[in-house]
Amino acid sequence: MGKIIAVANQKGGVGKTTSAINLAASLAALEFKTLLVDADPQANATSGIGFDPGDISKSIYECMVDGLNVEDIIIKSNIDFLDLVPSHIDLVGAEVEMINLPNREEKMKEALKKISDRYDFIIIDCSPSLGLITVNALTAANSVIIPVQCEYFALEGLGKLLNTIKIIQSRLNTDLEIEGILLTMYDVRLRLSNQVVEEVKLHFQQMVFDTIIPRNVKLSESPSFGLPAILHDADSKGAISYLNLAREIVEKNAVLAK
Ligand SMILES: Nc1ncnc2c1ncn2[C@@H]1O[C@H](COP(=O)(O)OP(=O)(O)OP(=O)(O)O)[C@@H](O)[C@H]1O
Ligand SMILES: [Mg+2]
Q1: Looking at residue 146, what is its pLDDT?
Q2: CATH of domain 3-147+216-256
Q3: Fewer CB within 10 Å of terminal CB in the chain, N or C?
């Protein structure tokens, strides 16, 4: 069974999609069979690896609401070992449409169960919300990565997120673990960045990944080429840091590096 990791934080713009894309691409580069699931109506992960969400007719939405088989919507990416379950804007409607479905929190779990043994890792990019789709992602997942931006108000909303995770652990997914807190957009020159790192490490200690993601222009420009950073500029600090994160996760999970 593949390990399912959700990338979640209801705070917007903290690096969820950048982390989901580049972690997934790095795991694929290490030759782990990886599936990236775009669970955000913004569809940034879909466009970020080169697909136009406007061309997508079927998404995770149809799997959750209409019971479509997820196998039928998986797209092979241009990267070996990396597949995508795309998103499009209709996913916005899924929350409302699912409200009266039985087991509405478990629709994504049911959808992914059918294919999880084909992958080593399944990475879910969540939207900036703690709504039903994110609850579905956290119910489907074995663990969650929480990106925290090294900026003002970094810890804002984290209490609420951790509380939501606790509720999901107690009611919907007792096995859900926190894979780690990931510090993103770190700028070594800024005192503030360093203060955030210190504060987060003080609060969360071993929960924080050793790998810290620097602020790096290659990471911000690579989605406009429809590429993960590792293909846009493999030697960039951004690409290397996500490769390090992938290695850290592989080691932590004692998966034999290939
Ligand atoms: N390490 C980084 N260095 C430079 N720019 C970054 C970095 N990480 C993310 N960015 C940029 O910051 C912006 C927000 O990042 P991203 O889209 O990954 O966040 P998000 O949490 O997925 O946002 P949303 O909440 O809207 O889904 C994007 O423009 C992205 O390119
Ligand atoms: Mg995003």
Answers
A1: 98
A2: 3.40.50.300
A3: C
Tokens of 59: 């998404």
Residues lining ligand 1, Cβ inside 6 A: 12-18, 40, 42, 44, 127-128, 184-185, 213, 215-216, 219-220, 238
Distance 13 CA to ligand 1 centre (A): 5
Bridge-based pairing of strands 177-184 and 3-7 is unpaired
- pLDDT reading at 258 higher than 60: no
pLDDT at 255: 57
Residue closest by Cα to atom 31 of ligand 1? 220
Pocket test for ligand 1, best of 7, 9, 16, 18 (most atoms within 8 A of CB): 18
Domain ranges, ordered by start, for the chain:
3-147+216-256
Q: For residue range 65-120, what is the model confidence (pLDDT) as tens digits?
A: 888 999 999 999 999 999 999 998 888 888 888 888 999 999 999 999 999 999 99
Rounded to a whole number of angstroms, the CA Rg of the chain reads 17
